[in-house]
Write a structure and sequence with these properties.
Low-confidence stretches: none
Largest sheet: 9 strands, mixed
Structural class: alpha/beta
Order of helices and strands: EHEHEHEEHEEHEHHEHH
C-alpha cells in the first residue's frame, strides 16, 4: 500500500521547498510525491528536479491535461501508483506525522480520511484559525447544509473513488474541494483522525483566496451544478 501525494505547481519556486521538505520528513515512508508543473515560467522545474535527484520518491511531471490546478491534479491522479491519494497545495505544509496518522485510519469500508489544519496568514505567519475538516460516515447532507467543509490538504482519498468521479472538475474556478467532496460523498464513507496535521496558508497575493470574483464564480457554478442535490437537502 502506497500513498501518492499530488502537488500542482505554477511558478512556485518560493513556496515549494516548504511543502517538499515537509514530505521528505514524513515518519511514514511508503509514499511518492508527484509535482505536476503547470508550465511554469520560473525555475520550478529545476527546483523539483533537485529533489528528484536526492530522493526518488519525488517525481516531476509536466501537465499534459487541461491547464490549471484541477487539470494538473487530474494529470497526477492518472499517473499515481498509490491506492490512496493526498491532494496537497504547493504553498502549504504537512506535519511530520501527516501520512502516518491518516493511514492509521485506513479500513475496508473507508474511502476518505479527514483531519484538521492550522490556517496561517502567509504574510505574518500568524495562526488565523483551526480548520475543522473532520467528517465521519455519510456526510453528503452535512456538506450541502454547510455543517461541514472538507479541504484538499487534510485528506486521503481512495484513487478508485477519484477515478469513479472522473477526477476533479476543471470548470470549477474556486471551492474546488467542495465540488469534489460533494461528488465523492454521494457514495463514499468518511473517517477522521480528529488531529491537526497540516498548515494551510491564506492571503498570499497570487492565490485564489484573495480573488473575490473567483470565489463568487466557483460557488455559483457549484450551486447550479448540484442544484437538485441542494434542493433535496442531500438526503439519499
Amino acid at each position: 500500500m502506497k500513498v501518492s501525494v499530488i502537488i500542482p505547481a505554477y511558478n512556485r519556486l518560493h513556496t515549494l521547498p516548504r511543502v517538499l521538505d515537509s514530505f521528505a520528513a514524513q515518519t511514514f515512508s511508503d509514499w511518492e510525491c508527484i509535482i505536476v508543473d503547470d508550465h511554469s515560467t520560473d525555475a520550478t522545474r529545476e527546483l523539483v528536479l533537485s529533489y528528484t535527484e536526492r530522493d526518488n520518491r519525488f517525481l516531476y511531471m509536466l501537465n499534459t491535461c487541461e491547464k490549471g490546478a484541477q487539470g494538473a491534479r487530474n494529470c497526477g491522479i492518472a499517473a499515481a501508483q498509490g491506492e490512496w491519494i493526498a491532494l496537497f497545495d504547493s504553498d502549504d505544509y504537512a506535519y511530520p506525522n501527516f501520512l502516518e496518522e491518516l493511514t492509521k485510519k485506513i479500513a475496508d469500508r473507508v474511502d476518505v480520511i479527514t483531519s484538521k489544519a492550522r490556517m496561517v496568514d502567509s504574510n505574518t505567519n500568524e495562526t488565523i484559525d483551526i480548520a475543522n475538516w473532520c467528517a465521519e460516515g455519510n456526510v453528503l447532507s452535512d456538506l450541502l447544509n454547510g455543517r461541514v467543509y472538507i479541504g484538499y490538504n487534510g485528506t486521503l482519498i481512495r484513487k478508485a473513488a477519484l477515478e469513479r468521479i472522473a477526477g476533479t472538475d476543471t470548470k470549477c474556478r474556486s471551492h474546488q474541494e467542495y465540488d469534489t467532496h460533494i461528488r465523492l460523498s454521494q457514495f463514499c464513507t468518511y473517517a477522521s483522525t480528529n488531529q491537526i496535521l497540516s498548515d494551510y496558508y491564506l492571503n498570499a497575493a497570487d492565490t485564489i483566496t484573495v480573488d473575490r470574483r473567483k470565489h463568487y464564480d466557483g460557488y455559483s457554478y457549484i450551486l447550479l451544478k448540484h442544484s437538485k442535490l441542494f434542493r433535496g437537502g442531500g438526503l439519499r
